[in-house]
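HOLO CASE FILE
Compound: pyridoxal-5'-phosphate
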Amino acid sequence: MRAFKAHLLGLAPYPYQKVEAPVKLDQNESPFDLPLPLKEEALRRLARLPWNRYPEIHAEGLRRRLAGLLDWPEEGIVLAPGSNLLILALAVAAEEVLDLSPSFPHYAHAARMAGTPYRTLPLREGFSLPLEEALASFQGGVFFLPNPHAPTGTLFAEEALRALAERAREVGGLLVVDEAYREFAGTDFSHLGRGNPHVALLRTFSKAFSLGGIRAGYLLAAPEVAQVVREVLPPFVLPAHTGAILEVVLENPGYVGEVVETVRSERERVYGRLLSHPTWRPHRSHTNFLLVRTPDAAEAFGHLLAQGILVRRQDHYPGLSGCIRVTVGLKEEMDAFLKAAFEVAYA
Ligand SMILES: Cc1ncc(COP(=O)(O)O)c(C=O)c1O
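Model generated. Tokens follow.
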């Protein structure tokens, strides 16, 4: 094959395999669909749109709305069908990509796709941030830092992020704080990017906003950073239907609080119950999932699946031997999970 760049031929596929199961706890989705009245309103708006026309080139209307809601300059906002695409655009633009290991796998995957030099820093014992190493290693380029962290659920301290934000300014790099799970932690690190063009925030509608299927995320950055990312993305990248749905949820965000409250209280309940498990150890989480260390991830996964519960194995990541990741779902789903988890203990 001479059509493609050589580095793309050996690229490992994204680590996801579709498996059908009655209780689906494998993709960190919201267990709630968008409330029906909001879906109906979005459908009405969709019907009124001219489908033969291209949408706005850079989702100007929605950016204006977000700018007002978040008090962020409109020129510093980039909207895209999923924050994954923003990660790819940033990786294409980056001189170098830096991340943590383990971390959200798309940072490394995007860097490899883009042919951008990539380095990763192992987390410390207990999944803490290797701050000294991170400060020393960050010499420029783009540093992707999910906070709360995926796939461990850890929330890194504000002081560490401040130090990295200052380091980014010093070396002229860009610290990208990926806030995909921020609603479940109750955090907002956007202040780090106000007045520091070397910090950007990445956000998604796929989790707390219950819109995983709609594909939407955005970047908050300095206008000069956002400008580069917008130009790396194809024009008219946000589909009109995604835009119409976002308009409705931004006008009616009340349901998000209920999603977050339910997920947080279930997360704490399940975490608490798992503490008394004889062999499984949950890691404290600030997200909508729990990382659980078991004696054998393959066995735990197989046993849960046999009971109709689909989770995600994480034991292929460095430092995560025996680990599975369980999305926090509805109470009845988590009851089924707990029942199966405790059965394995006494099998
Ligand atoms: C840390 C992190 N960032 C980004 C994403 C991707 O989000 P999106 O659905 O907006 O592409 C995910 C999805 O699971 C994630 O875990």
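CASE NOTES: The mean pLDDT is 96. The domain at 36-251 is CATH 3.40.640.10 (Aspartate Aminotransferase; domain 2).
CLOSED: yes
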